[in-house]
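Newbie here. two chains, one complex. Structure please?
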Amino acid sequence: MREHGGNLDLAQQRFGGRAEDWIDLSTGINRLPYPVGEVSARAWSALPSRAEIDALHQAARGAYRTSAPVVAMGGAQAAIQLLPQLAAPGRARILAPTYNEYAGVLSAAGWDVEEVGELDALAGADLAVVINPNNPDGRCHMPKGLLALLPRVRRLVVDESFADAAPQLSLASEADRPGVLVLRSFGKFYGLAGLRLGFAIGNAADVAKLAAMSGPWPISGAAIAIGCRALRDDAWAETTTARLARDCVRLDAMTQSQGWRLVGGTPLFRLYQTPDALGAQEKLARWQIWSRVFAREPSWLRLGLPGSESEWTRLAEALAG
Amino acid sequence: MREHGGNLDLAQQRFGGRAEDWIDLSTGINRLPYPVGEVSARAWSALPSRAEIDALHQAARGAYRTSAPVVAMGGAQAAIQLLPQLAAPGRARILAPTYNEYAGVLSAAGWDVEEVGELDALAGADLAVVINPNNPDGRCHMPKGLLALLPRVRRLVVDESFADAAPQLSLASEADRPGVLVLRSFGKFYGLAGLRLGFAIGNAADVAKLAAMSGPWPISGAAIAIGCRALRDDAWAETTTARLARDCVRLDAMTQSQGWRLVGGTPLFRLYQTPDALGAQEKLARWQIWSRVFAREPSWLRLGLPGSESEWTRLAEALAG
């Protein structure tokens, strides 16, 4: 398995404790999740029906402000797994540094993968990948800049896993253009990563191909029921967006006292330059707070946002300790 | 979408009613499901950890009585979706008539698919597929007969989606032999098809390849938690196996009065030869009981087993009516 956040196993092996004792800030998953509520007996027992899946697609179109074709999948990751098969292997270019699954999955499937540092350098790719906003550094691209790239690449995949709280960045409304494919994660903003839900939004041909590869029942009944409810709840999304913005300011202020410099981030995580990231990770881990470090950038530490007030307090104590 | 059971949308369009009003006997899903119980906050929110997924694999090995490598996936269907990529397209032979997804998925991926009527006729295939016991006719093969086929095919896929209540049929304990791949469905016997959980059991190379194609988080936290609990519950499995055996006798007796002849079946569904299957489907549908008919075999009607006593009563009334 490639290096990821959310690897709490490793934290437990090294520092002890049960999973539920830890505050896992090693991911960008909202720690105040959408309330799951009751899941009906039918959602557990029955195969999801066509009508139920269509209703979820409709809810996703509403939340993501698009009328383009949509297909639900088991997380944005499930779409990444299928990307290599959308076309015969060719030249993939990925705007890096970024989420390492794209390079890994494409290379394994025989694609020629190049990581590039600038948007312009994606030109000429058969498959260009941009994570927007980017993980882990929060680099952003406005839709106009991405659309300008379209004539110069065969297919542009825009991973908007962290775009829920920054809808102005989204290319979802333009996703039915030929050559565009937008991926959305449900679990991060809604804090329900264990549900395994994400969406691909694109032109009819690509979406039909992804749907065929995913099979008739790619997501659970609970994902459909909870996803429908959450994606239609504009008030919750608005409140959460505002809260996350405030919490980012709060976290940046708290960590400044450590001599950490903000490299960038999104409303769901912050990336700091630290004098000693491994040391900082260990210091937090002694308080059972898990964070993300990067083998390739040994000064970087990424932190998700604490949820409850008691989580904020423990983080403050850990930083002071 | 190919013709399947569980298409309650169609029943509702034609005969009205809400999904929860219907008794859906169009599938082989146990209607007295394993009790879901509480799902922890962490199962909803966190990405499944390596340790949690490993524990589920261990529980599956226990339930399926094997020490072979196992990988959990989003239903047996998720494994079927990936089958075409286990090897370069070649000659696939499927013991038919059977579940139509194999032929559909393999053909779409460029395999040369032939449906054959006898086990022996699978010889020579690059990929041979046997559903054991078979859906819809319940045809069974003992492990010895399947193993005898091994030297004559490149890869043998045995779909044991309906084998939970007939463990003597299972090839799971032999699944780590080169060329064998066993697929198991969790949702049918445990009555939780909406959970989307299944397993591939095979040799290390095949299982590693399927795991890599499925990605790091192919199933939900709820599937892991409930799956672990259910697969370790031998007492529930035993009671359920005994109950299903009794219920098959009861259903066969009830339907005999209609002049229906048992073609075959498994402990989770029965296939009947009827004078007029579409007429019988409509008769049951007027009581909001949905059944499965087959375009290619217009006299066949497949019925799952009712669950509660009130479901049995409604079925008796529908048959009498």
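Moderator note: The mean pLDDT of chain A is 96. The radius of gyration of chain A is 19 Å. Thread marked as resolved.
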